[in-house]
């Protein structure tokens, strides 16, 4: 009777050992995906992920382009002391200039390679589509519409891994310098080091604690959460860390169309975005121009610009009509009987017979009746002597003594 008992115990021991081996392999599989330290992640735990680490349960191999992924820069600002009740991450819209960085004209991730990795494994592609919220057939188009950039602050996100043929979910903090793909609202959607889909983090609590090794400069009070921009954007203003300059990168572009923004942000590229940022100046608007009075033509004066004959001229307008300041008429007809300045403008000369600018010495027409000016001839003129006697008066009146 003792033999069957011993055999039963041996079978149970073998089965127990098999279970332990299976459990150990499962953990090792997870550890191999997480580079041997992180294992698998639970949905409710916070995982600290360094920029270069692949992390647990990767969807694909890394697609990071080292030339386009700027390294994490050490913080130069002093640690921020959070106010009571303000210990959580700071929320910034995805359109914030300087929220992301990169290298000008170089992509941080290889989007084409990411598409090929997923297409080679239908199960992973299907799980990726479910976690990203798109159709499986639309995965390539979804990825091509994203923009490769680099995080410039430690960022809270919702992460997804691939395990046992389906997607897993967990919360994580990604280190500044992590290469990601963002959408047209500025939200991180894919982590390029592992191909894992990203989403907005669950909850808004502080990023204290968590599993993983903190990196130098990590401060839970200075992490950020990216909120979707108010509306879809066409360009992202990022920081070129190599030249400490601003770069405007079109959404969905991998750096080929990078350019310098026409209007730079109101702060320097190296500004710590986890601290207070100055507001952007208001957009300039064109002020409507005041309507200008049309200038009257010199050939045909307007009826409303010249005084009507017979009306008294208001004080000050007579000078304006003759001197011709800006906007004043300069060709109004001269009323009959008033002195003329010689510009007739089609009107008859008021005083015919007055001296003209004809050259002197012109022979006079003997048939022309004498006018006000004696005719000009070439013969010497004889002085006319008028006899007068002393005592005669010539238009001079002597004062009469009273």
From TrEMBL:
What Pfam families does the annotation carry?
DUF6777
**Compositional bias (Low complexity):** 66-75
Write down the InterPro entries for this protein, in alphabetical order: DUF6777 (IPR046704)
**What are the DUF6777 domain coordinates in residue numbering?**
90-252
Annotated segments matching region Disordered? 56-99, 248-402
| The keyword Transport belongs to this UniProt entry's keyword annotation | no
Q: Which UniProt keywords apply?
A: Signal
List all Basic and acidic residues biased stretches: 248-261
Q: Which residues form the signal peptide?
A: 1-23
- What is the protein named? DUF6777 domain-containing protein
The top of its lineage is: Bacteria, Bacillati, Actinomycetota, Actinomycetes, Kitasatosporales
């Amino acid at each position: 009777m003792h033999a069957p008992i011993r055999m039963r115990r041996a079978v149970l021991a073998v089965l127990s050992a098999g279970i332990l081996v299976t459990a150990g392999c499962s953990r090792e599989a997870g550890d191999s995906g997480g580079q041997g330290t992180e294992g698998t992640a639970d949905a409710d735990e916070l995982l600290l992920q360094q920029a270069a680490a692949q992390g647990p349960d990767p969807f694909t191999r890394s697609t990071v382009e080292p030339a386009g992924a700027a390294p994490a820069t050490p913080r130069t600002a002093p640690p921020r002391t959070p106010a009571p009740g303000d210990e959580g991450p700071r929320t910034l819209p995805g359109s914030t200039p300087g929220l992301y960085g990169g290298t000008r004209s170089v992509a941080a991730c290889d989007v084409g390679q990411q598409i090929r990795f997923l297409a080679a494994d239908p199960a992973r592609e299907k799980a990726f589509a479910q976690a990203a919220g798109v159709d499986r057939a639309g995965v390539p188009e979804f990825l091509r519409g994203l923009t490769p950039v680099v995080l410039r602050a430690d960022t809270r996100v919702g992460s997804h891994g691939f395990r046992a043929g389906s997607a897993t979910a967990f919360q994580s903090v990604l280190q500044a310098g992590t290469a990601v793909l963002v959408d047209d609202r500025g939200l991180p959607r894919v982590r390029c080091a592992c191909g894992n889909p990203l989403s907005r983090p669950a909850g808004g609590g502080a990023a204290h604690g968590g599993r993983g090794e903190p990196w130098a400069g990590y401060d839970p009070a200075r992490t950020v959460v990216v909120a979707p921009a108010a509306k879809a954007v066409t360009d992202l203003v990022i920081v070129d860390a190599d030249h400490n300059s601003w770069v405007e990168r079109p959404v969905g572009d991998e750096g080929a169309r990078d350019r310098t923004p026409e209007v730079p942000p109101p702060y320097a590229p190296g500004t710590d975005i986890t601290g207070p940022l100055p507001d952007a100046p208001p957009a300039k608007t064109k002020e409507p121009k005041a309507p200008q009075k049309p200038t009257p033509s010199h050939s045909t004066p307007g009826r409303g610009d010249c005084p009507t004959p017979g009306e008294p001229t208001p004080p000050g307008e007579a000078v304006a009509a003759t001197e011709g300041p800006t906007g004043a008429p300069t060709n109004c007809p001269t009323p009959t009987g008033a002195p003329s300045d010689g510009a007739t403008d089609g009107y008859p000369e008021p005083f015919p017979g007055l001296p003209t600018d004809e050259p002197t010495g012109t022979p006079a027409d003997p048939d022309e009746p004498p006018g006000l000016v004696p005719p000009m001839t070439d013969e010497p003129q004889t002085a006319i002597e008028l006899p007068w006697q002393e005592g005669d008066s010539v238009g001079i009146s002597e004062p009469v003594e009273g």
